[in-house]
């Protein structure tokens, strides 16, 4: 465990291994897939609930972060839409009960899989009563869609409690990435997850070179919520008597994502 504030960044490892598919009902949704020509109008923050769409549950093994064996890796661009509700829920992943910031009840958030060239849309509803949210798509180029980059106060307004916002952008790269809250240090409360972009150019082929792929996500875990830690660090007295970066109480390796929250 790295005891520095900068090491809060979760480390996501994706590797090929021979494993059986996990099981368990997915709590996230991935809906209609259609071909698209462009990005359409720039989304705006709305008062209305998140747009309702026909929701088809996919990735039945999402909780294990095992990549979906039925996901079609293709060069044909598709639109993928996700409906995400951000809410606070209590859980004790290391035995200490505290509030988490979750996506559709999951901490960390759902595994997202897409192909290079796809257009992704995330319909976000902030169901946190007292906190704003934003989500940054770490490493995405956002060429021409800078307003989807999620820097509250710079590229967008913070998403207030009860409000919805749609992030929409085209993916023009591939690899193993992650997404995370860009509001304060909120991502340390659990608002982050893996973002896997496939490519037809991948020299390793499922079924030929490997059997399955598994994301392993590691993160530091604090018993205090980020708002408490940041408030302390920004005060004269510091957090727990010091303005030095605090050490985490635990490290989590969450190949299962919801067991502590259910
Ligand atoms: Cu980032």
Short summary:
Helices cover 3% and strands 29% of the residues.
Task: Describe the protein's architecture and organization.
This protein has 262 residues and is mainly β. The chain has one domain: Sandwich (Immunoglobulin-like), CATH 2.60.40.420. 3% of the residues lie in helices and 29% in strands. It contains one helix and eleven strands. The longest helix is centred in the C-terminal third of the chain and has 8 residues. The structure holds copper (II) ion. Keywords: Copper, Glycoprotein, Metal-binding, Oxidoreductase, Signal. This is Multicopper oxidase. Belongs to the multicopper oxidase family. InterPro entries: Cu-oxidase-like_N, Cu-oxidase_fam, Cu_oxidase_CS, Cupredoxin.
Shape: globular
Spatial gap, N to C terminus: 26 Å
Q: What is the rounded Rg?
A: 18 Å
User: Which small-molecule species are bound to the chains here?
Assistant: copper (II) ion
Q: From the coordinates shown, what is the CATH architecture? A: Sandwich
Query: What is the count of β-strands?
Result: 11
Oligomer: single chain
Protein name: Multicopper oxidase
Organism: Piloderma croceum (strain F 1598)
Pfam families: Cu-oxidase_3
GO molecular function: copper ion binding; oxidoreductase activity
